[in-house]
Amino acid sequence: MDGANDQVDSNGLFFGGIFSNSKSKKEVQVPTYKKDVFYNTNHKRRGLAVIFNHENFTIKKLRKRIGTEDDCVKLEATLKSMGFVDVKKYKDLTKKELDAVIGKLSKEDFSDCDCLFIAVLSHGDQGVIYAKDDAYTQNMLIDRFAPDKCPTLAGKPKIYVIQACQGDKCDPGIEVRTVQVDSDADNNNNNNDSIYRLPLYADFLIAYSTIPGYFSWRNPSKGSWYIQALCEELDCHWQDVDFLTILTLVNRRVAVDFESYVPHDHSMDRKKQIPSFLSMLTRILKFTPKTN
Length: 292
Hints:
The chain is of the alpha/beta class.
């Protein structure tokens, strides 16, 4: 370091306005040391899991989301198998109702929890998600769980799964042929320090069923491609693989195994989908089984 003051590279936008400015509290307690490589997942409780399930809407342009109940049932079963004893489900909330629930949940004590898990199953567009009666941004889901507002989640992973469209484009895909496959893996060492500073929006993870601008596909009899794949990969690997690796396996499963079947509409037939995730995690998230 040469002693010069640090500067910012900014045009006034940060992740498209996902996060808002917030004042930091002086100090909060965290369950990890500065150099810890893994999150602490040995708390008494796995944590709070919440599913906001939207099937019916009062907005005229939005159709009923047939198949979302299958998603909700599968996701609840998967979360409970992972140790989330407390899975809260909310159906067809208005924007005001959803905001009130988030406010109430953010005031809970998460001291004995590993993490927070929130899933939203709904319609969406670029930059917004739809409640029953109105659109909202994901800020409403995220801001109140930052450590200055919810200190008992400081230093703990806050996981969001967004099953919703992010636009109206279709991905036509492309034929590929395998030529060569290589793989590498690295590990880091672990050291301990007790006092350090964290950004307010560290330890957030947002997993999206698709990428900005594109449709997210759902089958009326089976549920959405993404939630199907997410539940299958979690059921198989949550005890032995870290969470970001699982999300990568979900991306692979959706990208490779799914293709739309709409034979009467060529513009929608044989289309593909690629999920994505935005990680602000600062450690490796690997869940350990609960002994109780």
